[in-house]
Predict the structure.
Amino acid sequence: MLLRNQGLKVAIGPFNVRIHTHHQPLIKQLYMLYSHYRLVQDEIIEFHVRINTERSIRNPLRLNVRFLIDGQSPFESFPEEQALAVLEWGINLAIAVRVNHLLLLHSAVVEKKGAAILFPAWPGSGKTTLCTALCHRGFRLFSDEFGLMDYQRDVIYPIPRLMPLKNESIAVIRKLLPQAVIGQSIPNTHKGTVAHVRPPEESMRLSENTAKARWIIFPKWIVQAETQLEPIADAEAFMLLASNAFNYEVLGAHGFRAVEQLVAQCDCYTLTYSDLDEVTTALHQLIDES
Amino acid sequence: MNPDYRHHQTLLEALINPACLAHYTNAEWELLIRLARRVKLLGRLALLVKEYGLWECAPLRVTNQLTSALIQATKLRQSTLWELDRILWALEDFDTTIVALKGAAYALTGLPYAEGRLSVDLDLLIPADDLADIESLLKVKGWRHRSMSAYDEHYYRVWSHEIPPLVHAERETEVDIHHTLAPLTSRLKIDSGLLFANAQITSLAKVRLLCPVDMTLHCAINLFQNNELADDLRDLLDLHDLLFFLSRQDTDFWKLLIDRANQLKLGCILYYGLYFSQLIFKTPVPEGAADRLHAKPGNLKRRVMHRLVPLALFPQHPDRPMKRAALARWILYLRSHLIRMPLHILLPHLVYKTVRVIEAKSKAMMR
């Protein structure tokens, strides 16, 4: 009901988002996957988004969905089956384009023992899959997509969003984590087939507890690879991290100092792996032994 | 007040009377941020909140968004000025004069609030005779035109007052090179020679700025001749700033402005500029200043524009767009084309654009 009328207002990490839609299948999916977000009242909302349906011009029998932010449409419409993926993608894009009071790393982030572990990576390196596994096995989820660093206060904000597994990862995670709540598979998106994992309830509940970054690990999934954690030099980590941030250039001197600070206070590694059980054990060990 | 227009007031009060922000509720702040963002005034708002000492009492979710906008504005200004620097480097051995326009010009003049202005492109005016040389020099040094249809290319080359935008392969700032200030197809014939003759030097060799009255007139031309006015409140605020600050620097400003408008046959355009700047931003235009303009819009035109222009300039309410404003914007869109092109060019042009929009939409559907 909320989604149709005044909009569903939820706190997603440090941001408040208001979502409007009349699209029944999307309402159902959100009802399942968004159920643990804190509802927001009388607070300022940063992102006002909407998923509208419209008829295709060429094929009037087909319905398309369009993402709107503040009434503006930043990209084209998509087939209605993709509504959830379009909504999630649109919100991510809006965050990436608008937010400059934080350093935005393109990174998965989890937390253990009060310390944040960043996994900065490029699309296709398996960070969402890795992150899904970790946050169901003893780590708290911060985000599978954004490392949000408050460079004034030197803390990382959690921003638990649905985790979009792609293609083969969907079956892998269903098998590995039967307890995970996963939305329906959405075929034929621009990233192939996508299915969204709901963040564990505990991670959502604690999503206002920030942490300091302590580890930076650049992950890479490689077929058949042994699990290997290799320390890397600060200079190399700096360059990798700077080129990974969405808004490093926009931030200018702030960005430079933020990355410098992160590299100075973190142990930096590269990680190659293929087995999720093995890598989970290795990461627990790394943190427990420190 | 008519509740349909209440959001205009939420935005306008913040701009002309920032002290009132101390009493804004959360809901008003939220709406204000959305409106200001739509009309590219978030950076300006940030500066005003700071100037009036309200940063500490504004909600954190607001100041975070204002900080983000200021950082973006700073970056854009830096990119624009860096692009200008690179252009000068590319043209090092070529003897010419480059007039910086709009955002880059406001930054170089040190116009107040320039550091909050979001200017994405670098706009330059160069002598028409140097155009071909400059374009080919820049292309040799790494600038490229975006790919465009043969029609668009023709549009720029034959009818427009600028060449197709250039972007350097390694950067993102778009460079718009103008050889005059209004489309060749419009009835306005502005003698660029007169503009160059009065242009003022800057600390950068080769770079000139339009003299204060020409800079002001150019701002008015953009609004009431070249643009479609929808969501252009920022540009009217530019005009207000120019009128307000430049007139303080020179006691003869108003006289010079009116004389120059008459000389360049820009009477109607300046009339609208003064009228709406005064109407909306309460610009202190001396009484009777506009009376000396040789050309003025007729009574009927004035009344129609009075009704339509504010509906286009102010952003729509993001959740409750008004049909009336949409209609006003559509009429002004047609007007902007009518005054830019004669009918025999305009009608095929609008047909072409409409077909292309439909094509693009149906292509997206097929994906």
